[in-house]
Write a structure and sequence with these properties.
The chain is of the alpha/beta class and 208 residues long. The chain has a single domain, classed as Alpha-Beta Barrel (TIM Barrel), CATH 3.20.20. The chain has nine helices and eight strands. Strands 1-2-3-4-5-6-7-8 form an eight-stranded parallel β-barrel, surrounded by six helices. Strand 4, helix 4 and strand 5 form a beta-alpha-beta unit. The longest helix is centred in the first third of the chain and has 17 residues. It starts with a strand and ends with a helix. The model has no long low-confidence stretch (mean pLDDT 94).
Amino acid sequence: MKGLYAITDCDRLSADSLISATGQILRAGVVALQYRNKSGSHARKKYEAGELQQLCKEHNSLFIINDDLQLAVSTGSDGVHLGREDCDCKTARNELGPEAVIGISCYNSVETALAAQEDGADYVAFGSFFPSSSKQNTTVAEPDIIRQAKARVSLPVAAIGGITPANCWTLIEHGADMVAVISSIYQARDPYSAVMEFNRYLFRKYDE
């Protein structure tokens, strides 16, 4: 898993706007799309998840559900992303099966990443690295946590939190396999071009 990891901006976009922007984002090329909706109704989540999952299939991107294990099961998503207040990795694996992609938020703790690897996670995520307009009261992480994790954990590492094309390079240089973004692409005037700008940095690193 290497590349841009898009996370939906459901709080600030209507369903139609979300789906339209996601189509542009996926067309530009992302490794995965995470559906993150903390406050929507069950009906809205079911509708959006179905539409976005179909778009991911069309563009060969993984479709990951944030937090909601039952929604992941009911939609047949590619996997789930779990935080400290969600169910554990083993429970998710039992529900979703051996082929599911399970990601774990590790904030600023390599020990949490090691435990996630032991429990069978497929990738780990660290952050927030920069101030974020999408998430408030986040745990702060320093870029060197990525280097530390890469030295001790064999899983792909994602970086998240306030990442823009202007600041992503330091995280990539420290070893991030994926950069996860919300506002920088969903609030961009041209989401397609915003993704392409990120991809120029990411592909530059992979080509070295």
